[in-house]
Amino acid sequence: ERQKHIRNFSIVAHIDHGKSTLADRILEMTDTVSKREMQNQLLDSMDLERERGITIKLNAVELHYHAKNGETYIFHLIDTPGHVDFSYEVSRSLAACEGAVLVVDAAQGVEAQTLANVYLAIDDDLEIVPVINKIDLPSARPEEIRQEIEDVIGLDASEAVLASAKQGIGIEEILEKVVHDVPAPTGDLSAPLKALIFDSVYDDYRGVVLSIRVFEGTVKPGDRIRLMNTETEYEVTEVGVNSPKPLKREVLMAGDVGYLTASIKDIQDTRVGDTVTNADNPAEKVLEGYREMAPMVYSGLYPTDNAKYNDLREALEKLQLNDAALEFEPETSQALGFGFRCGFLGLLHMDVVQERLEREFNMDLITTAPSVTYDVELTDGTHKKVDNPAAMPEASTIKQINEPFVKATIMVPNDYVGSVMELCQRKRGNFLTMDYLDEYRVNVIYEMPLSEIIFDFFDKLKSSTRGYASLDYDLDGTRPSDLVKIDILLNGDKVDALSFISHRQFAAERGRTIASRLKEIIPRQNFEVPIQAAIGAKIVARTNIKAYRKDVTARIHTGDPDRRAKLLEKQKRGKKRMKSVGTVEVPQEAFMAVLKTD
Ligand code: GTP
C-alpha cells in the first residue's frame, strides 16, 4: 500500500556544507520542478535567505522518485537551517521524519553543528544516511573525512556516498539509499487522527496554514478537527502538499507530510508543536511536542514613526506564527517611546526578524542593543529578572548580579588551540576540558558568559583561526559577576535605550570606546551635542559632536542634478532607521555601537 512507498527525511549539516544545493539537485533529478522553473536554492524561498545564502526556515516538499527497483516512491524532503541560532527549526523538522541525510563537506570535515545536528537526529532514532559532499574540490579529502565521521561521530561511514551537489555526482545513489535505508512510516490509518504541527504561516486569504506530519488516522476537507493543547475546534477547508507549489489533495493519511487550512483567523489558537486530532473521535494522548526554546538575547524594537505601534504589534503576531522562537511584550522607553521587548535565539535571529518585519510587513524600525537576562538579587532578598539594561535597579539596592553562562564547545585544528584559548580567556572564559578528536583536531570546552558569546565572539573566533574553528554552545546556569550599568548621555540627557551592562573591570574603557564611536555614527546637528558615558553619577568619558557650520546639502546641489535625484530616490526607497531622541537624530547603528567590543 501507499505507506510502504513513503519516505520522510531531512537533510542535516553544518552551515555551508551544501544542504540547499543538494536539495536543489534532488528536486531536479525527480523532475519536481522543470529546468525552466529551477532557481538555485529553490527551497530557500525567502528573499532574505537567497541574498544571504543561508537557510533560515525549514521547508517541506513532496517529490516522486522512480527507483531502480521499478517502483515509485513518495519522498517528503524537509530542508533545515545549519546556523546555531536556528537549531530549534532542525529539531522540529526531524520530529516529522524517519531518516536524515547527513551532509559533511569533504574539505572541512565534521564541524560543531554537524555534531549538534546529527546528535539531534540520533536522539530521535532517525536512520542516518551519511554523504560526503564537495568531492569536486581540489582540497577534498574524502577518505580522511570518512574516517573522521566514524571516529568523531561514531557512525558507520563505510558506505557513505561520495557526492558533489554542485556537479550532480552521487545524487541517485543518495536517493537509492533513502529508499533502502530509511524506514517507511508506520501508523494506523483507521485510528483517530494524530498529526503534529511543525510549522505555520499566516496567509491573508486562507488564514493560518499549518504544516503537519500525520502520524495516525487521516484528515480531509470537511473534517472537524481539534487542536489539542489550545482546545479549539475548526472545520478543515483544504489539505495538500507542497511540490514545491501547494497542490490540493483529497486526503492526508498516516505517514504523510503536508499542509492543512481551516479558516483559522485567530493567530493565538495555533501553536507549533501542538497535536491535531478529530473533534468527534479524539486521540487520547497528545504527541510529544518540542522542547520550548528559551530566547538567549533580548532587545527593544521600536517603530521609527510612533504612530506605527499597533501595526508593529500586528506584524509581530503574524511573524511569531512563522517563527515560534520569537517572543515579545510591550515596553516603553523615555527616548524611543512605545515599542516591544523581543526575545531572540541569537544575533542572526534578531537581524532576520528585523529584516523580515521591514520587508514582509513594511515596517521601519529601530532595534536597541541586545542584552542577556540577568538575575539580580536585591538587598531585600528578592530576585529580579533584568533583560533590559535600562531596567537595572539602583546599584545601592543590589546585593549581587548573576549572569547567564554557557558551556561552549569549540572544535579546532591543533595549531590554533593556543589562539582559541587566548580569546576565550580574554572573554572571561573558564577553561573546562580539552579532548583530542583525532590526531589533528581538538574539542576545547570553556564555560563563558553568554553575553560575551553573543556579541562578536564568533567573528573573532573565525578570524583568529583562519575560519577553521566551529562553535556550539548550551546554556549552563548563572554565576555571580561583578557587573555595572553604563549610561550614555546625549546633550546632557540620559538615553535609556543606549545603556548597557559591562564587567566592572572593562566598564570605563568600554564607556570611552562607545562614546567615541557614537561621535562618528551620530550625524552632526546644527548645534553641538556633548556625549558622555557615566557609571552611576560618575562621568567616565566625554566627547562632543561638533555642530555643522554650512549647509552640507548645498554641496550636492552643485553636483550632477541627475545624481542628486537618484540619491534622493534611493534615500526615499531605503529604510530610514533613524529616530529623534529629544532634539538629536540618532541612526540605527548607534544602538548597536556597544556590540563591537574594541
Ligand atoms: P545553509 O542553508 O546556510 O545551512 O547552507 P547549506 O548547507 O545549505 O549550503 P549551500 O547549499 O548554500 O552551499 C554552500 C556553498 O557551497 C555554496 O556556495 C555552494 O555553491 C557550495 N557547494 C555546495 N555543494 C557543493 C559541491 O558539491 N561542490 C562545491 N565545490 N561547492 C558546493
From TrEMBL:
Catalysed reaction equations from the record: GTP + H2O = GDP + phosphate + H(+)
Superkingdom: Bacteria
Gene3D superfamilies: 3.30.70.240, Elongation factor 4, C-terminal domain, Elongation Factor G (Translational Gtpase), domain 3, P-loop containing nucleotide triphosphate hydrolases, Translation factors
SMART domains named in the record: EFG_C
Any one GO cellular component localisation term in the record: plasma membrane
A UniProt-annotated Pfam family: GTP_EFTU_D2
Keyword annotations from UniProtKB, A to Z: Cell membrane, GTP-binding, Hydrolase, Membrane, Nucleotide-binding, Protein biosynthesis
Localization, UniProt: Cell membrane
The Tr-type G domain, residue ranges: 4-186
Binding site for GTP: 16-21, 133-136
Enzyme class at the top of the EC tree: hydrolase
Keyword Membrane: yes
BP GO terms, sorted: positive regulation of translation
E.C. designation(s): 3.6.5.n1
Membrane topology: Peripheral membrane protein
An example Gene Ontology molecular-function term: GTP binding
Major subcellular location class: membrane
UniProt family annotation: Belongs to the TRAFAC class translation factor GTPase superfamily. Classic translation factor GTPase family. LepA subfamily.
PANTHER family linked to this entry: TRANSLATION FACTOR GUF1 HOMOLOG, CHLOROPLASTIC, TRANSLATION FACTOR GUF1-RELATED
Its biological purpose: Required for accurate and efficient protein synthesis under certain stress conditions. May act as a fidelity factor of the translation reaction, by catalyzing a one-codon backward translocation of tRNAs on improperly translocated ribosomes. Back-translocation proceeds from a post-translocation (POST) complex to a pre-translocation (PRE) complex, thus giving elongation factor G a second chance to translocate the tRNAs correctly. Binds to ribosomes in a GTP-dependent manner.
Stored NCBIfam families: lepA, small_GTP
Name of the featured protein: Elongation factor 4
Organism: Liquorilactobacillus aquaticus DSM 21051
